[in-house]
Specification:
Elements: H1 17-27, E1 34-36, H2 37-46, H3 48-51, H4 55-66, E2 72-74, E3 80-81, H5 85-91, H6 97-109, E4 114-116, E5 124-127, E6 133-140, H7 142-146, H8 148-188, H9 195-209, H10 215-244, H11 250-260, H12 272-277, H13 295-301, H14 317-330, H15 335-345, H16 347-359, H17 367-379, H18 385-402
Antiparallel strand pairs: 1-2, 3-6, 4-6, 5-6
Helix pairs in contact: 2-4, 2-8, 4-6, 8-9, 8-10, 9-10, 10-11, 10-18, 13-18, 14-16, 15-16, 15-17, 16-18
Length: 403
């Protein structure tokens, strides 16, 4: 029997273009194709989040499959099942009639079954003289056969996402534990710093955790938690370095301590003349290079840099560094200033800093002067990219929410 023909539903049910396309797709079955009906059903169950189906709908699909006598759905065989609502209700754990009809509609909309209605809307089969079914009216299972590979891929995608979310949740647990205990240790030891603000950021992130549902939201939350953890560790490291320093210059020591206890992104740099007049203090030490953050995080915090990459896109750190050179020239930053930043911060972090300056270019009077100021602070161990990226991520998220 030909089950691929386009048919319209009985009664008041409307016909839509989506239903036409679903029936056409179900008709495109490779000759001789066959698949285990329970394997397809398991794939549909695993992919239910992508299909937008509830457990009740899958229970109804399971009941429909029990009315198909063969284990394998095969091209060329009759794939229409025609149970009554009473029979379906009995095999679907006794669900109400209205719930049954609702979930049958969901299965049709999801493209897992299609209606093959009779002239009067009843479900039945007509047999020939040899006893074989000539015509059947009810629900066609041909979409399951046609989409078997697609459903398998969807199930694998869901499984991969679940594994990824599990790993991200584990990392979130570790990061939140680290931040909580590090803040507590700093407060109990009486280390200077505005730890109350740091804790307020931590509490806000934990508030978002309770409302987080999607994999993308978990990843963004993890990145912000790791940024916060990095910031707390940087503060503790700088405090330790400060206590071990042998310098007697109290002004410089106080300047380092003050800058170490703030977590803000400054966007009003000194002028070029002021930069020239302000000598870099020599503390007799060289700090560890600034840690590079993940490229994906940098691009989310600084999306405008992408258009300056090769071909208008950035796919690697090399692309970001190429784009940074273009932006440096565009913002009139001297080659010497950028080269100095690369030597002090490292090429990846210098490129990230240029991307951050580009994001806030409208608030900076002199990009070159500002870069020299940040380079000087990085040389003295007073500059961290963590607060900069976190502030930009928050600003981008707030702007997206307003839009």
């Amino acid at each position: 029997m030909q089950v691929g023909n386009v048919t319209t539903p009985f009664g008041r049910r409307p016909m839509t273009v989506a239903l036409v396309r679903s029936q056409m797709r179900a008709a495109q079955i490779e000759p001789g194709k066959s698949v285990d009906k329970w394997k397809v059903f398991r794939d549909a169950c695993n992919a239910r989040s992508l299909l937008g189906l509830r457990d009740r709908a899958l229970a109804v699909l399971n009941a429909l499959l029990t009315f198909y006598p063969e284990v394998a759905l095969s091209e060329g065989s009759n794939l229409v099942v025609f149970p009554s609502n009473a029979q379906l209700t009995a095999r679907a754990n006794g669900i109400a009639g209205s719930t049954l009809r609702e979930n049958l509609a969901h299965l049709v909309e999801a493209g897992l079954i299609q209606r093959h209605d009779s002239p009067n809307g009843k479900r039945y089969a007509r047999k020939g003289t040899d006893g074989a079914i000539e015509t059947a009216y009810g629900f066609s299972l041909s979409p399951l056969l046609a989409r078997s590979e697609e459903l398998a891929l969807m199930a694998q995608q869901v499984a991969a996402t679940q594994r990824h979310v599990k790993v991200v949740k584990e990392r979130i647990t570790i990061a939140r534990r680290d931040v909580r205990k590090l803040i507590t240790a700093a407060v109990e030891d009486g280390l200077p710093g505005d730890w109350g603000k740091v804790e307020a950021v931590y509490i806000a992130l934990m508030g978002r955790l309770r409302m987080t549902k999607t994999a993308e939201d978990y990843v963004r939350l993890l990145e912000e938690l790791e940024l916060l953890r990095e910031e707390v560790i940087n503060r503790l490291e700088l405090q330790y370095i400060q206590e071990k320093s042998d310098t007697n210059d109290a002004d410089i020591r106080q300047h380092i301590q003050n800058s170490n206890t703030k977590s803000t992104i400054e966007l009003e740099p000194c002028s070029r003349n002021e930069q020239a007049e302000k000598p870099s203090p020599d503390t007799g030490r060289r700090n560890e290079p600034i840690k590079a953050f993940p490229l994906s995080m940098v691009l989310r915090a600084c999306p405008e840099i992408a258009m300056y990459g090769p071909g208008g896109n950035i796919e690697s750190w090399r692309d970001l560094m190429v784009a940074a050179v273009v932006v440096r020239s565009m913002l009139s930053v001297s080659p010497s200033a950028y080269q100095d930043a690369c030597e002090v911060m490292g090429p990846e972090n210098a490129a990230t800093t240029m991307a951050a300056i580009l994001e806030r270019a409208g608030h900076i009077s002199s990009a070159g002067g500002y870069l020299r100021d940040l380079t000087g602070r990085a040389r003295r161990g007073e500059f961290s990219l963590g607060p900069v990226l976190m502030a930009l991520l928050r600003a981008n998220r707030q702007e997206a929410n307003r839009a």
